[in-house]
Amino acid sequence: MRVKAEYLNKIEIQWIQAAEQETARVLVVSGVHGNEPQSMKGTRLLSEYLSNPENELVTEILEGTTVVTVPLINIIGEMADARSCPEEAVEVEFRDSTVIVQDDEKGMYKFPSGWCDANAGWDTNGTLVKEHIARLIEMIAPTLIIFNHDWTLTQGKIYAYGPEVYDIPDIEMILKCFYPTSNILGIEWKFIDIIGPDFLNFTLPFILANELGIPVLLTEVCVGEDRSPEITLAVNLFILAMYSGAQIGDETVVNRILRSLNHDGKWWTR
After folding, report:
1. Domains of the chain
2. Within 13 A of 43's CA, how many CA atoms are on the CB side?
3. CA-CA distance, 131 to 222, in Å (whole number)?
4. What's 34's DSSP letter?
5. pTM of the prediction?
């Protein structure tokens, strides 16, 4: 059955309100690429984690910070198991809760007609993902956006866009808990890349940071591990804790996160 893509275009939003006077709003988004399920699971874990009012770290983060999570912003891409996203006027083949595209149109090099990579640009980006993000920005007025992604390298990385996030202290520390500090060639791994305004970069995060003035952190977590969603959760918690200035006594933020996630015996570090 052929249907307009916009008819399938729905997203799940969880608004976790600051407990005291709000000083920051963080928008956490995953599923920009519809074939990246691990980061979607990780963002859902974050929503669940932040919903526990008995957790000391949660109460510290939410004292002055509102967190809005969108675990899957490219629902049609996810239905097609495809990286890209259609534009509003496009019709798609919909069958048994699945959007049908050719196998060679699911990756990053070839897209179905009327689809494109939702992570590309802003003015030229006509995807349904871009429309969602534009509405969310208008509704939420975020002071920081976190985009969670999967990738295939056996490492993790954070990309920082906008001067406001360059000074978040020790932001790469949490990734060092889960990944080797050097690559397979023995070269020291760079866990954070700062993408300044002088870079030739036309991705969505770059435009948001440098043209709309919204700082962005983009996380990349190795997709090849069973614990990838939990690592996404840990990275997001660390960013939120450091950004909100959470105070948890003498214990470091990293130790607090690892301890809180180790209670079921399923967590380990490298």
Report:
1. 2-261 (3.40.630.10)
2. 31
3. 28
4. T
5. 0.93
Beta bridge mates, 15: 68
Burial of 120 (0-12, 13-18, 19+ CB in 10 A): middle
CA–CA dist 188, 193 (Å, integer): 14
Q: What is the pLDDT of residues 60-89, one digit of tens each?
A: 999 999 999 999 999 999 999 999 999 988
For residue 225, give both structure tokens.
Answer: 């591990």
Residue spans of alpha helices (H) in the chain: 37-49, 56-61, 75-80, 128-140, 163-166, 204-210, 228-244, 253-261
List Cβ neighbours of 225 (8 Å cut-off, separation of 6 or more): 231
How many Å apart are CA 249 and CA 260, to the nearest integer? Answer: 15
CB contact at 8 A, 64 and 240: no
d(CA 212, CA 8): 28
